[in-house]
Specification:
By secondary structure, the chain is of the alpha/beta class. It folds into three domains: 81 residues, Arc Repressor Mutant, subunit A; 104 residues, Nucleotidyltransferase, domain 5; 168 residues, Nucleotidyltransferase, domain 5 (2-Layer Sandwich). Helices cover 45% and strands 17% of the residues. It is built from 14 helices and twelve strands. Helix 2 crosses helix 4 and helix 5 packs across helix 7. The longest helix is centred in the C-terminal third of the chain and has 25 residues. The chain is globular. This is ROK family protein. Belongs to the ROK (NagC/XylR) family.
């Protein structure tokens, strides 16, 4: 019943339905929340808001299981979205870690599967590979597709450097169309940086700021700002611009034609190239005990060497962190976010985040009026998948 009502609300475009969607979104973002607060947030008359909240309650879209603190009279009723027996699936396909996550409507992880890192696959091959893995996750939890509100998929990490005639948007569209033919629920394919920013913001920072910047340092470097609950740019149709910020004009040449772009200085690929170059120049490294030659070096081998305190790999990591910190500091000066969150595979590695934070602090020390707070991502490895599920909810509410 809950899923049926959600989908009916999703498809309706009447004036009343739009108001119900708006209230549902506010409850999802701010719950548990009382009617008085919703009235203020929705800019509605108290009677109108109360009537629409009652309707959401009758439709079982929200619950009233909690009571707030009393200010002298009766305790106010607090509303939350109903999550009973309806699920989301979020998928991140990556060259480093690929993950499928089962969530409830509040983005709480219920189960997950780690799958082998993905090389580039055509949309049809990717569909063939994903379907049995999604089916297995649902089967393990005794859940049918009839209980899944939707599936979100992030794939740009495995297609970004393989495209020739087609754009990333076309790849998204092709995979989306194929999955929708095979899966009896809503499917959206999009940008991992969008997904990760949305999940971090909604889960941890929505109540703290309206000016939020999320950055990710992975196989590519990306950034996404959310200002007043809106994405600042649309990164689903083109290469993310953040990684093409020029930091050192004497640096390596980027695929965009410029020199010293962020992607060439602090991405996983750039660290790997820097390590291999130094090894080929004759420097020593514990990596040589993990692989037979430099051509066998992988990201995971470098991570293992970092855990073994290998000085060469740690120096390459710390150099990347310095450039990443410079780029974030410059973006803070321009965008003026109140909170910045740094995500991606590199953030938990060794001293990477500490150096990023120190570099930002040093750069901004001349601007004492800027009070931006910088944090590491809460879940470095699952946040993209969680955000993929959150984007399904965005589709419902918008």
């Amino acid at each position: 019943m809950l899923l049926k009502n959600l989908k009916e609300l999703q498809s309706s475009k009447t004036s009343k339905a739009l108001k119900l969607k708006n209230l549902y979104k506010l409850i999802a973002e701010n719950g548990p929340v009382k009617t008085e607060t919703l009235t203020e947030l929705a800019l509605m008359k108290p009677a109108t808001c109360a009537r629409l909240v009652d309707e959401l309650n009758v439709l079982k879209l929200i619950t009233t299981s909690e009571l707030g603190e009393s200010t002298g009279g009766r305790k106010p009723i607090l509303y939350s979205i109903n999550t009973e027996d309806v699920y989301l699936i979020g998928i991140e396909l990556s060259k480093v870690y690929s993950t499928i996550i089962l969530m409830d409507l509040k983005l709480n992880m219920l189960d997950k599967m780690k799958i082998a890192p993905e090389p580039y696959l055509s949309a049809s091959k990717m569909t063939e590979k994903l379907l049995p893995q999604i089916n297995e996750l649902l089967s393990n939890n005794n859940i049918s597709y009839q209980k899944v509100l939707g599936i979100g998929v992030s794939i740009e990490h495995v297609i970004e450097q393989r495209l020739e005639s087609k754009s990333i948007y076309e790849e998204f569209t092709n995979l989306e169309a194929l999955l929708r033919k095979e899966i009896p629920t809503y499917v959206t394919v999009g940008s991992g940086i969008h997904f990760a920013a949305l999940a971090e913001y909604r889960l941890y920072y929505r109540q703290k700021t309206q000016r939020f910047l999320f950055t990710s340092c992975d196989t590519q470097v990306r950034g996404c700002a959310i200002i007043n609950n809106q994405f600042l740019t649309d990164t689903s149709t083109t290469t993310n611009y953040f990684g093409h910020m020029a930091i050192d004009v004497k640096g390596p040449k980027c695929e965009c034609g410029s020199y010293g772009c962020l992607n060439t200085l602090c991405s996983l690929d750039s660290i790997k190239k820097r390590v291999i170059n130094r090894l080929e120049l004759g420097e020593n490294s514990l990596l040589l005990s993990l692989v037979e030659n430099s051509q066998e070096i992988t990201y995971h081998a470098i991570f293992e060497a970092i855990e073994m305190k290998d000085s060469l790999c740690i120096e390459a990591l710390e150099e990347a962190a310095y450039y990443y910190g410079l780029a974030i500091a410059s973006t803070i000066l321009f965008v003026q976010p109140e909170i910045v969150v740094c995500g991606g595979t590199l953030i938990p590695k060794s001293t990477f985040f500490n150096i990023v934070k120190q570099t930002i602090d040093n750069k901004l020390s001349c601007f004492p009026n800027i009070k931006t707070q910088v944090y590491p991502a809460s879940h470095a490895y699952e946040i993209v998948s969680q955000g993929a599920g959150a984007m399904v909810l965005e589709h419902l509410m918008n």
